[in-house]
Amino acid sequence: MATRRLLPILLLAAACTGTPDAPVASFTSEPFGSMPDGRTAQLFTLKNAAGAEMRVTDYGGIIVSLTMPDRTGTFADIVLGYDSLAQYQASSPYFGALIGRYGNRIGGAKFTLDGVEYPLTVNDGPNQLHGGLVGFDKVLWDAEPFADSLGAGLRLQYASPDGEEGYPGTLHVSVVYRLTDDHRVTIDYEAMTDKATVVNLTHHSYFNLAGPGHTILDHELWIDADSTTVVGAGLIPTGEIASVEGTPFDFRTPLPIGARIDDPDPVLQLGPGYDHNWVLNGGITPEPRTVARLSHPGSGRVMEIRTVEPGLQFYAGNFLDGTITGKGGIVYGRRTGLCLETQHFPDSPNHAHFPPTVLRPGETYRTRTEYVFKTDAAGA
Ligand code: BGC
Questions:
Q1: Which atom of ligand 1 is nearest to the CA of 318?
Q2: 204 CA distance to ligand 1 centroid (A)?
Q3: Fewest Cβ atoms closer than 10 Å to its Cβ: which of 80, 116, 141, 248?
Q4: Does the Cβ of 137 fall within 6 Å of ligand 1?
């Protein structure tokens, strides 16, 4: 085990000391398919200097694959997705995508801002989910790959027209993905508007630290949250913020996800299973702090989430039901991938006591999330 781990460490050390033959971060791109209007979507392959690889397409800003090492140094793809653009276009439960303008649900698909009611497109019962019928997950972004001393990255930009999916204001959005040489995936989001609007951007990778096709019920999760936003029908917040104490939502001590996922708790059963927003301790912070840790004891892979956001949606892949065949022909059964979506709370525009999601002209929306990959091997 020690010998296999030595090589990446030596290579990384070489990169840091500037040895001439040291591996460096790099990127390549290739066509991934066509949009209905004839534009070509690209697939970018980003590599860091330590052997990890992330493939991202400018269609929806989707992370198509991400490889990370286990405790023996063996890399595996740890996100769910498809092999072709056509499959993403045909139907996807937001695999790996950028989500906007509003991540999560807006109850009744409407909100009132400065006395004006804005009806939104409806795509989840009577509600709106993840930005509507054609959210940021389904548009083609302008993309510019880069590599620098930190790793490889992709800068994505999209101008969302005034009124798109019902939202006021032209919204100029920029998202920068980085795959750093120390195995972090960082996401920096920025947006500006020309009319008062609401914004809540997030990312929707389905992780499985065991590699493709396995259950996520054996993953252990820690979430630094004393409470959650309680939901009612359609997973819309009631406005109540409830303590996790004595409930299956208490992840303040790391526990296997499967331990309590089918508990009869009525709010949990609405999922059914985990599909809720945790109110992160510390609220909105100026710099990212570690808010959650996911670990897979079998492989030793660990993922920490760092963010400035006040909320985290933990979705346990309850709606995956074996009808989707993903990359490499692997069938995605129930709970074989999980999402940890950093965010402001769902339905905030309709709850005045939730942290506000309003963006006004002249302001810049900025948020940052980091997925930090490690292993539980000694010294890692
Ligand atoms: C939501 C789930 C939804 C999933 C895919 C998650 O963010 O919380 O309810 O099924 O996205 O659409």
A1: 10
A2: 9
A3: 116
A4: no
Provide the pLDDT confidence category of residue 36 given band limits of 50, 70 and 90: very high
The answer to whether residue 14 scores a pLDDT higher than 70 is no
* Ligand 1 atom nearest 103 alpha carbon: 7
- pLDDT tens track for 53-80: 999 999 999 999 999 999 999 999 999 9
State which of 200, 312, 315 you would mutate to test the pocket of ligand 1, scoring each by most atoms of that ligand within 8 A of its C-beta: 315
Backbone angles phi, psi at 147, to 5 degrees: -140, 140
pLDDT band at 22 (very low <50, low <70, confident <90, very high): confident
- The reply to whether ligand 1 has any atom less than 6 angstroms from the CB of 338 is no
Q: Which domains does the chain have, with CATH numbers?
A: 13-31+41-375 (2.70.98.10)
Mean pLDDT (the chain, rounded): 94
Give the catalytic positions in this structure: 204, 341
Is residue 119's pLDDT more than 80?
yes
Cα(68) to ligand 1 centroid in Å equals 25
Question: 228-286 pLDDT, tens per residue?
Answer: 999 999 999 999 999 999 999 999 999 999 999 999 999 999 999 999 999 999 999 99
Which atom of ligand 1 is closest in space to residue 204's alpha carbon?
7
Rounded average pLDDT over 327-351? 98
Burial 310-332 (b: 16+ CB within 10 A, else e): bbbbbbbbeebeeebebbeebeb
